[in-house]
TrEMBL record:
Locations listed in the record: Cell membrane
Superkingdom of the source species: Eukaryota
Protein's gene: LOC108979521
Name recorded for this polypeptide: Receptor-like protein 7 isoform X2
Organism field: Juglans regia (English walnut)
One GO location term (cellular component): plasma membrane
Membrane topology designation: Single-pass type I membrane protein
Alphabetized PROSITE patterns for the sequence: LRR
UniProt-listed SUPFAM superfamilies: L domain-like (SSF52058)
């Protein structure tokens, strides 16, 4: 059944290495095997000593340090050591397989490894070797197989591939995936006429791929995917080609697929996903009857799928999504082995209604999103093995038909019906019938009535952006395995059920924003809790910020904005070690912000928005001092919050499940969705309160700040020139206060500043000019009676008119940032087949897609994004 792509890769590799092994074994005659040579034993031990063993160096679960069994004593026969292979006649070490052996360290040119002159088979894959691959490796001239793949810190200098081609002429197998090569592929590599397997995925290769390599007479496996800048066309092939596996995914290969591709009669897998191919599929493709996996996803191919494709009877996986095909669906139904079919984003027609034929293909994975279906296709009635079904964005209207409640009830684990026009389920079901459903996405439909209840197996459930009404049914609390629940943007009302707190043992995300809930917020976290994000914003919730939040020790984001929370500022939330985003805007917070205790110092806070409340007193200097995460500019943390990944294994396929946070930020009235909130975004919004006193100098410590809004308070005193330290500041709003003095000249050094507003204050003197300041208009400065100079019409006196102009700053880097965090959302997605880092990702359901896809006809590529780009 349906081997996934990476599995095939592994198997192909396994078979190859098995063959090598066999060759080596059979080459030896019977009789007593000589002991290994002293010099080689010594070299091996030296090799062992030159690296450290680090369990985390190899990711594979089966990884273990093979060298730890290598013994120092004199009589130990190194031929019997784990990973070592000797020639049975000569006793020379001819094979060294230390793949996934948890080794870490530099591979120096004087490494004893290079003294093993008889080596034929060297495998150092999947560890953390680093440094340039020394040219000494070229002295191992007997190498038949060389595998250094998955050592991302290893580099091969530009001449490296040339050296290999010139010196290691016996090579049959060369694997350098994930090694940093960063160069063109030299033509001379096509001289390695013995090559059977060549794998160079994700090596940062660029330039034109040498066409001669395609024609290597023995080449069976060629992987050059995930080299974004590698380009080329598919050449003409003749019938002598032994190619079995060809992967070009995520490269810049382009042009049409030639008819002669039909000559690759040995081809088993062909992946050209996410390239730049155009034209039609040649009907000769139907000659490739050995094909098991065909992946043409995300290109610019068009036209009809040729009828000949129905001859590909061995096909198990077919991915044609995100092209411009016209698809007669019937073609695929006859491919009886086909278990995974992805056609999303094409135009599908059903010529006949094939619902009655039980001999048709039974799919496990069927992705038909955005195919203009208009209704649930009838053939689904016969599908009793579906695991994942995506019918999103198909303008399907009305009710989900009764018979859908019979489809694959035992096997279905993921169902996406996002972005249709569905109004409900045509049955009086209390609970949906799918026994093993884990992921259910019903967002952006027109669902009415009360919240549909998924079965108890559910892990992820989102039904945002519908018209659901009434209270949250208590049955929701029976979902003891649920990790993410999104009921946002509906018309739900009533109190939040007390039992919600019981779910926090499993829930990581709870999104109820934009409904009409009222009453107080129930106790959230109990003993065990996993909650990372809650969003209750835009409701009518009252009472205090629930003290139980302090028990939610994994919380990263809290949004209670736009409610009627009546409380003092919850300094005690500072105890949460992971809290990054705190939004309490537009509530009824009152009183002064108390100076904080050192135990409550918000160690990771990046975004705080308490605007539009009734807070008073001085600005919270002690807090500013404690907010350490805002004080560093940590480029590394860019990755932060970007993706949470959980690997889930389901029926032999490894799926990874990814989440991204997103925020909506208003920029001058335009909402902008920031899909990934990274550690880089640092926001303080204390605007529209009743803060008084001066702006403390400690604000200048918050070096990571991107957005600072103190507008509409009663702040007095000068604008501290130390704000010029905030080099990443993109927006500074100090308008509507009682600030006095001059605008510090130093602020012109803020090269990313794209928004600046000091209007409605008591500032005086000349407005600085130059750089960003030349881009602000007069409304940024208005209503300061004593301010003068450009862009105001009031001219300064001679003495005042002394601010030096400086060169205009180049705005290149200043991506336009808006303001006002109004909502935090999150997304989630399925990704397929990331087995041991092998790179086969098909698609992702993003939050963006979930909410904005409706009515957007041209959505290709924007919404479906692979993981690696
Ligand atoms: C590579 O092969 C080409 C043509 O087969 C030949 O002309 C050239 O000399 C070879 N290069 C080396 C370095 O062997
Ligand atoms: C097929 O291609 C190989 C390699 O390019 C070449 O050596 C051979 O002569 C070609 N055969 C025919 C029949 O064209
Ligand atoms: C795609 O290929 C066409 C030629 O077929 C080329 O003009 C275009 O620039 C390529 N697009 C990209 C993004 O490389
Ligand atoms: C290959 O496909 C082409 C076009 O479909 C066809 O004309 C040709 O006969 C096929 N060759 C073989 C050997 O099947
Ligand atoms: C069902 O499909 C098979 C294979 O395509 C075909 O041979 C058979 O005639 C079909 N049966 C019916 C009842 O349509
Ligand atoms: C569901 O399946 C059962 C058994 O196969 C059948 O009796 C029933 O009629 C089906 N219901 C619908 C609505 O198709
Ligand atoms: C919900 O859970 C309660 C207690 O665990 C149980 O009694 C009840 O039957 C469950 N309801 C459903 C519909 O599963
Ligand atoms: C939301 O529900 C209220 C009653 O709870 C109703 O008056 C209102 O019309 C509903 N709004 C929408 C958009 O359905
Ligand atoms: C929630 O948990 C508490 C304590 O564990 C328990 O008493 C209560 O019955 C639970 N509520 C629900 C609705 O399961
Ligand atoms: C600056 O703030 C004032 C008052 O808050 C507002 O009227 C004006 O439009 C703002 N200027 C800009 C450029 O946004
Ligand atoms: C700063 O906050 C005030 C009050 O909340 C708001 O009106 C203003 O738009 C904000 N500044 C910007 C640039 O959005």
């Amino acid at each position: 059944m349906g081997l996934s792509f990476p599995l095939i890769i592994l198997i192909v590799r396994f078979v190859v290495s098995l063959m090598m092994f066999y060759l080596i074994l059979s080459a030896s005659s019977s009789g007593v095997q000589p002991l290994c040579h002293d010099d080689e034993r010594f070299a091996l031990l030296q090799f062992k000593e030159s690296f450290i063993i680090n369990q985390s160096a190899s990711e594979k679960p089966s990884a273990y340090p093979k060298v730890s069994s290598w013994k120092l004593d004199q009589i130990s026969d190194c031929c019997k050591w784990d990973g070592v292979e000797c020639n049975k006649d000569t006793g020379h070490v001819i094979g060294l397989d230390l793949s996934s052996s948890c080794l870490k360290g530099f591979l120096n040119s004087n490494n004893s490894l290079f003294r093993l002159a008889h080596l034929q088979n060297l495998n150092l894959a999947a560890s953390v070797f680093s440094g340039q691959i020394p040219t000494e490796i070229l002295e191992l001239s007997k190498l038949v197989s060389l595998d250094l793949s998955y050592n991302p810190l290893l580099k091969l200098q530009e001449s490296g591939l040339t050296g290999i081609a010139q010196n290691l002429t016996n090579l049959k197998v060369l694997y350098l995936d994930h090694v940093d090569i960063s160069s063109n592929i030299p033509n001379i590599l096509a001289n390695l006429s013995s090559l059977t397997n060549l794998s160079l995925s994700k090596c940062d290769l660029h330039g034109e791929f040498p066409v001669g390599i395609f024609h290597l007479p023995n080449l069976q496996l060629l992987y050059i995917g995930f080299n974004k800048y590698l380009t080329g066309c598919i050449p003409e092939f003749n019938r002598t080609s032994p190619l079995e596996s060809l992967e070009l995914a995520h490269t810049n290969f382009y042009g049409e697929l030639p008819d002669s591709i039909g000559n690759l009669k040995s081809l088993v897998e062909l992946s050209m996903r996410s390239c730049n191919f155009s034209g039609e599929i040649p009907s000769s493709l139907g000659n490739l009857t050995n094909l098991i996996d065909l992946d043409l996803q995300s290109n610019s191919l068009h036209g009809s799928i040729p009828q000949s494709i129905s001859r590909l009877v061995n096909l198990e996986t077919l991915r044609l999504d995100n092209n411009y095909f016209r698809v007669e669906f019937e073609l695929f139904l006859r491919l009886r082995k086909l278990v995974e079919l992805q056609l999303s984003g094409n135009n599908i027609s059903f010529i006949t209604n094939p619902s009655t034929n039980s001999t048709f293909a039974k799919f496990r994975i069927l992705l038909l999103a955005q195919c203009d279906l208009g209704e649930f296709p009838e053939f689904l009635r016969n599908q009793d093995r579906l695991e994942l079904l995506d019918l999103s964005g198909n303008k399907i209207h009305g009710q989900v038909p009764k018979w859908m409640g019979n489809v694959s009830i035992e096997t279905l684990w993921g169902l996406a019906l996002v972005g249709n026009l569905l109004t409900g389920f045509d049955q009086l079901l209390v609970v949906l019938p799918y026994l093993n459903l884990k992921h259910l996405m019903l967002d952006s439909n027109m669902l009415q009535g009360s919240v549909p209840i998924p079965p108890p197996s559910i892990a992820f459930y989102s039904v945002s952006n519908n018209r659901l009404a009434g209270e949250i049914p208590h049955l929701i609390c029976n979902l003891s395995l649920i990790t993410e629940l999104d009921l946002s943007s509906n018309n739900l009302s009533g109190n939040l059920p007390q039992c919600l707190g019981n779910l926090s043992a499993s829930l990581t995300k709870l999104d109820l924003h934009n409904n009409s809930f009222h009453g107080t917020i129930p106790r959230i976290c109990g003993e065990a809790n996993e909650l990372m994000m809650i969003d209750f914003s835009e409701n009518h919730l009252q009472g205090r910020v629930p003290r139980s939040l302090a028990d939610c020790t994994k919380l990263e984001a809290v949004n209670l904005g736009n409610n009627q929370i009546h409380d003092i500022f919850p300094s005690w939330l500072g105890i949460l070690p992971e809290l990054r985003i705190l939004i309490l805007r537009s509530n009824e917070l009152y009183g002064t912000i108390e100076s904080s205790d050192s135990n409550f110092d918000f160690p990771k806070l990046h975004v705080i928005d308490v605007s539009n409340n009734d807070l008073s007193g001085k600005l919270p200097s002690e807090h500013f001092q404690n907010w350490k995460a805002m004080q560093i500019v940590d480029v590394e943390s860019l990755k932060y919050m970007e993706e949470y990944q959980t690997l889930v294994t389901h029926s032999g396929n490894t799926m990874s499940f990814t989440n991204t946070y997103s925020m909506i930020i208003i920029n001058k009235g335009t909402e902008t969705l920031y899909e990934k909130v990274n550690g880089f975004l640092v926001v303080i919004d204390l605007s529209n309160n009743r803060f008084e006193g001066e702006i403390p100098d400690v604000v200048g410590n918050l070096k990571g700040l991107n957005l600072l809004n103190l507008s509409s308070n009663f702040l007095t005193g000068p604008i501290p020139f130390i704000l010029a330290n905030l080099t990443w500041l993109e927006a500074l709003d100090l308008s509507q206060n009682k600030l006095s003095g001059a605008i510090p000249l130093q602020l012109t050094e803020l090269t990313f500043l794209s928004y600046f507003n000091v209007s409605h204050n008591r500032l005086k003197g000349p407005i600085p000019s130059g750089k960003q300041f030349d881009t602000f208009d007069n409304s940024s400065f208005s209503e300061n009676p004593e301010l003068c100079g450009n862009p105001l019409s009031k001219k300064c006196g001679n003495l005042e008119d002394s601010v030096p102009p400086s060169s205009r700053h180049n705005l290149e880097f200043s991506f336009e940032f808006g303001w006002k965090v109004v909502a935090i959302g999150y997304g989630c997605g399925f990704l397929f087949g990331a087995v041991f880092g092998q790179i086969v990702i098909t698609k992702k359901y993003g939050w963006f897609m979930k909410t904005f896809v409706v009515g957007q006809p041209n959505r290709r590529r924007v919404n479906w994004r692979g993981r690696r780009n």
